[in-house]
Design goal:
Blueprint: H1 3-15, H2 23-34, H3 40-64, H4 66-74, H5 77-93, H6 95-101, H7 107-117, H8 122-150, H9 154-182
Helix pairs in contact: 1-3, 2-8, 2-9, 3-7, 3-8, 4-5, 6-8, 8-9
Amino acid sequence: MDGALWMYVLLALTTAPPLVPNAALIASAGMLAQSGELDLWLVLAAVAGGALAGDALVYGLGRLAGPRVRGWLQRRPARRSALEWMAERLARHGVPFVIGMRFLPSGRLVGGLTAAVVGFPFRRFLLGSAVAEIVWASYSVGLGYWGGAAFDGAWAGLLVGTVLSLLVAGVAQLVGGRAGARAGRAPLEHAP
């Protein structure tokens, strides 16, 4: 099998499961696309498509385990409060909330499971997830692509792409923590 084909498969497989650190791999793929070694559109399709498949799988697992998960979440006040908060936001904002969840720490996992547990329609969830994953893939691959173009050499572009990814993740964590503190509770991923 061709080396480039393996790279597309690897990109799809590493972006499917949530919480797998793959920013450096995605930035590297963007740099390889910039240098002409990979096709930019196929890189974007592999990254966004893999992430979307993972989101659908998380939603499906949430549906299968829904009653047990709901019972577990409702046992403690903090978890029950987090579930009610998410359910209210999904009901009020729908697809835009699904899109926004993608960009919060642990948002893919928490958002997909919660959407399934509270019965948010799968088609609407998939639409929001698709928009979010396309935006996320474009941003993530673009870091490597433009980093490779701006800096002469793959290592400099890889370094800049990785640092920017970590910086964005840190800012998102900080904002999520402050928003939870203002609301009088811990951010969702830290709820006991």
